[in-house]
Automatic annotation (TrEMBL):
<dbReference type="InterPro" id="IPR000073">
    <property type="entry name" value="AB_hydrolase_1"/>
</dbReference>
<keyword id="KW-1133">Transmembrane helix</keyword>
<keyword id="KW-0812">Transmembrane</keyword>
<feature type="domain" description="AB hydrolase-1">
    <location>
        <begin position="106"/>
        <end position="264"/>
    </location>
</feature>
<feature type="transmembrane region" description="Helical">
    <location>
        <begin position="32"/>
        <end position="50"/>
    </location>
</feature>
<keyword id="KW-0472">Membrane</keyword>
<feature type="region of interest" description="Disordered">
    <location>
        <begin position="1"/>
        <end position="23"/>
    </location>
</feature>
<dbReference type="InterPro" id="IPR029058">
    <property type="entry name" value="AB_hydrolase_fold"/>
</dbReference>
<protein>
    <recommendedName>
        <fullName>AB hydrolase-1 domain-containing protein</fullName>
    </recommendedName>
</protein>
<dbReference type="Pfam" id="PF00561">
    <property type="entry name" value="Abhydrolase_1"/>
</dbReference>
<feature type="compositionally biased region" description="Acidic residues">
    <location>
        <begin position="1"/>
        <end position="10"/>
    </location>
</feature>
Amino acid sequence: MAIITEEPEPEQPTHSRSQISPTKPNNNPFSFWFYFTLSVSLFTLFFVFTSSTLSPQDSKTWFLTLPSPLRHHYSNGRTIKVQTHPDETPLQVFTLQEGPTSSENILIVHGQGLSSYSYRHLAKSLAANGLHVTSLDLPGHGFSDNSVEVSVEGGANGVFGRFWYVYSEIQERGLFWAFDQMVETGQIPYEEIQARMSKRKIRKPIDLGPQEMGKVLGEVIDSMGLAPVHLILHDSALGLSADFVSERAELVRSVTLIDTASSTKGAFPVWALEVPVVREVVVGVSFVFAKVVGLCCSKRVGVADSEGSRALLKGRDGRRAVVNVGKRVNSSFDLAEWGEGLKGVPMQVVWSAGWSEEWSREGHRVASALPQAGFLTHSGGRWAQLCDLRRTQPLR
């Protein structure tokens, strides 16, 4: 009888670690730069697409996306140059005039996050009564300059800064610029990139405070021949213009304060334009922006007004400029002391009586601090275009 035995399978040859030859690393710079350029290019395409969809930065493209009423508003105005600092480039300030030029001059200074477009109904109403009305967009708002070009010394800081610089270079020179340079010359253009990084110009959102805004108002009044002018200050405009009124009282014939308090910075909440994610939703979604305006400014704001303000915030660094200026508003000065120094200047306070009880009490506090001022109320919200001033003509 045969005995069947199970023979062991032949063992596979083993190799020690010393017998395994290590894989040679790929030191080819062409491979690295190809994949780097490809990844950055894909990121750039995605970023350009999304940024152009949400907030186009090119001025011409941005202007063409504006609602027709805004473009019509711009076509009726003009820009003038103002100098806030001797060594800096002049700023372009948008102005719009209504009514006969031979009449009394009124200058409307808008509040936080607004522009001359927000006061078009008020300006037309006053002009219809034979007054010459000028409204302007303060720097950082509306159609005025929202950013300035500044020179930056030194290279980009950090990994993100260098990556952002590469991204800006690709935007300017094309997607495959570095790769093309490497193919043509056989080397990476490190020296050229470093030289451009050491001295470069960037656009920075406007960051002006009350002193600079006072200079803007003074130059606008002087260059347009408005003095002596009746000033209408709405919302946070008092915090930006109080120093100017005190220092250049000879240019001012009267002051009208509309829903403006020294203890508050403005009706529209600046934080909603500053907090990440929140700001994108507020500025990017029409319904959300309208809700914020309804809760904080006025429940009766129309679609045209809401969409116009939102469109002006979306492009050309408008949102960031409004945040910068909003942080610089002087909301801590003594209103009574300020009024004491302007006893010879006629004043009136126009206040919303239907917004809230707390806001009505604030209006009476402002009127008490300025005993020489007349006090009137209106039925609109805290946005000036809803305020009917036909019965509150400038004091003479």
